[in-house]
Design a protein that fits this description.
Layout: H1 2-45, E1 56-57, E2 60-65, E3 71-76, E4 82-87, E5 93-97, E6 102-106, E7 113-120, E8 123-128, E9 133-138, E10 143-148, E11 160-166, E12 171-176, E13 182-186, E14 192-197, E15 206-210, E16 215-220, E17 225-229, E18 235-240, E19 246-251, E20 255-260, E21 265-270
Parallel strand pairs: 1-18
Antiparallel strand pairs: 2-21, 3-4, 4-5, 5-6, 7-8, 8-9, 9-10, 11-12, 12-13, 13-14, 15-16, 16-17, 17-18, 19-20, 20-21
Length: about 270
């Protein structure tokens, strides 16, 4: 009897230990699952290190042919009624309607003009890629002044590609196309305040400052994307576009305008809500 009792007790103890072991494993599994979920949520919420890059497509509203050969760069006047672009072929400046009709042409004897931005009703600024210069152009007098941007780049075919005027603080943003992809913020004397390396696209072909949101919009020709960025060039959102050789961008309250170099078209997209 004592032997039988001992055997039963041993079986009971084994059962208890087995149940305890099973409980510990279940408990450990729950802790592990919770830890994984917590860490995933933590990393997803760490906006300082994680870039939200959804590559959702922009909604195309219209595309209009423009009578400008190799249109490069895009700007808009203060009232939002007309656009400006430059020709990489003729180097002239063109004033356009928002549907792409040429309203006026301004003669300019430039050297590989790539970008444009509006400063005031009678003044625009251009960038020349090869010479790495910002050009101040008076639309009334049709006179101009060239200003060299001093930075480390000896590649004549991968220089300044876009320019954007910041109405909020009267500074300028310029971008170097690639190798390196570079965002530079300039003073009124065209000296560099600060510069940032860009690494979210294959190249950088146009830039626009959104004064309402105080962000930058940068278009990439090779990656075929429109990129919403901080003023330091950090990517906030990326949107895919089906546009060949996108070379300029303008963003309004409701729309995004993009100009194409190769097919001489002005594209109008719906601006994303977020």
């Amino acid at each position: 009897m004592e032997c039988l009792h001992s055997s039963i007790t041993t079986k009971k103890l084994a059962c208890v230990f087995a149940q305890a072991s099973t409980f510990k494993m279940i408990h450990l599994s729950k802790i592990l699952s919770f830890t994984i979920v917590f860490m995933t949520s933590f990393l997803a919420c760490d906006k300082g290190n994680v870039v939200e890059n959804n590559n959702g497509k922009l909604e195309l509203i219209s595309s209009d042919k423009i009578a400008v050969v190799e249109a490069s760069g895009l700007a808009i006047n203060a009232s939002g009624s007309t656009l400006y672009t430059v020709s990489d072929d003729t180097n002239n400046i063109y004033e356009l309607s928002t549907t792409g009709e040429v309203l006026k042409k301004y003669k300019y004897d430039g050297n590989d003009v790539e970008g444009i931005s509006v400063i005031s009703n009678n003044k625009v600024v251009l960038v020349e890629e090869r010479t790495k210069e910002v050009v101040e152009y008076d639309l009334t007098a049709k006179t101009y002044k060239k200003n060299k941007v001093i930075y480390s780049n000896n590649d004549s075919n991968s220089g300044l590609e876009g320019i954007a005027y910041n109405l909020n603080d009267n500074t300028l943003f310029v971008i170097n196309e690639k190798e390196p992809g570079l965002l530079m913020r300039l003073r009124s004397d065209f000296s560099i305040i600060e510069s940032y390396n860009l690494d979210f696209a294959s190249d950088y072909s146009g830039i626009f400052h959104d004064k309402d949101l105080n962000v930058l919009w940068i278009v990439s020709d090779q990656s075929k994307t429109v990129n919403k960025c901080s003023l330091q060039g950090a990517l906030i959102e990326s949107y895919a576009i089906n546009v060949s050789n996108a070379e300029g961008i303008v963003v309004t309250k409701d729309f995004i305008y993009i100009v194409s170099d190769s097919n001489s078209k002005l594209y109008k997209f719906k601006k994303p809500i977020k």
